[in-house]
Amino acid sequence: MTAAPRRIPSWAAARTTAGLASARRRDRAGRAALIGFAVAAAGDLGSLLAGWDPGHVLFKPLLMPLLIVYVLTLGAPRLLVAALAFGWGGDTALLFDADAAFLVGMSSFALGHVCYLVLFGKRSAPPLLGAAYLLALAGTISLLWGDLPAELRIPVAGYSLLLAAMAFRSSALGVRAALGGALFLLSDTLIATGVAEWPQPPRPDFWIMLTYLAAQYLLATGVLAAGTAPAGAPEAGRTGGGTDRGRTGVR
Known about the structure:
Layout: H1 10-50, H2 53-73, H3 78-93, H4 99-120, H5 127-144, H6 150-170, H7 175-195, H8 204-226
């Protein structure tokens, strides 16, 4: 005599169906946000190449919120969301042509780097890479020092130290995140040379935004690819030349 097949309770079937529907909605939202990020990035970079300031003002504030939505659909830790949100704060501040706005933007980015550093935790990074970053930082600051406005020398030096530390520590998460950290350092170095009024490549604002957007995307996806947050770090929802020319070439 064969046993009757076990029936799945109706409440369990409903829960499974609801879970699958929720996962599909989350996947669709993630794809839409990523496509939106790509479209906004293309619009912003195209506006910078064309010298169309209204396009830059329109697209730039959309970039980090769209990337935040994307990483949230993948179960991003809260510190990653905070890092990107501080990036948005810096992006928005640097749209204004004023020394105060520049300092506010730099402070917001600095808080984002702190979030990344905490997120990276105590994972080990290559010591030789750290030495290379330290030498590059010391050389860059010493060369820029005399050309920077006096009131910005200390803030830029302090920010640069924090940025270099973030770029170095990002290598603990793998090649993707390490490349993101290096590109962030390159992007902000281009900004610093613009502030110091050094010779710039054609359309420096384009190159600054291109390296910055690539940096934030690679850092965010590198963190997600690493799959874990540092011990004690809170997580959320884990389921398994335009307007910025007050400073030459500022993002």
